[in-house]
Design brief:
- The protein is an alpha/beta fold and about 325 residues long.
- The chain contains 12 helices and 13 strands.
- It has 3 domains: about 45 residues; about 35 residues, Ubiquitin Ligase Nedd4, Chain: W (Single Sheet); about 190 residues, no CATH class.
Length: about 325
Amino acid sequence: MSTVTYKCPCCGASLAYGASSGKLECASCGNNYDLESLEALQVSEETGGVQFDLPQETFNASEAAQMQAYICKGCGAELLTEETTTATECPYCGSPTILPDRIDGSVKPEMVIPFTVTKEQAQKQAELNLSSIRKAVARGEKVLTTSSTCTFTMRDEYEHILGLDNSDVRSSIALATKFIFELVDAGKAKLVFKDDYRKKVAYHTPCHMEKLGWAIYSTSLMRMIPGVDFHMLDSQCCGIAGTYGFKKEHYNDSQKIGEPVFRQIADLQVDMVATDCETCKWQIEMSAGVEVQNPISIIADALDVEATEKANR
């Protein structure tokens, strides 16, 4: 008994009969055909090709110059890609495809996103900050901050990005929570908190705080407050990435990245979230609908100032 094998007219893969649809189905590209149409198509091809009454659209000269064709190793389909594409997926069989000849050498970007502040302007502002910091350090003072991002920028990115030498003052720049914790831990200061302060607080670790490795100072101080029911959120980016997440074109991606954080906050039903980053604060307040405060603000609100003054005399 003879057998007949039908090939998919779109991608060339073998077709199999689908019992539920009653049609011949292509597992590679997902198309399906009834037998009559498929046989009529084959007859048309044998007698001169299939005629489609559709407008024939073609690439213009500029578009065509930027397109290159590759053959999918999985199903043999022809892939058309832009000249900057280095990896893609076959739309017919789903095979991941890497284009090796696109990886070697360099690729000129189509455009460069402009910064509001030029590198030269940023260097000038950073030099002014360093000048002020050096004067404070010369007086024997510590330079304290409340922003993890600003702290990381002044300590690490001034040198790596702006090419400014800050090695003489880098160790004198610290978060206020780190400074306070080290005083308390060394027995040089005591903190006394209000008896009636009660808050359920969740702490979100900013990405720059992770890089600094200083979250332990902020969280340890908040754990010292008797009236705080403290919860540590899972280490997860909130999705804001500076002001990336506020841009219209990135908003949806930003929300997807931060969704696990927002969901965990909602599940915990906290009174507030604590974080050392102002842009994380904006994102979480907007997306999770909960109050967000800097840890130093929570410590200040919970502190019994008079009792603390007496304890440190």
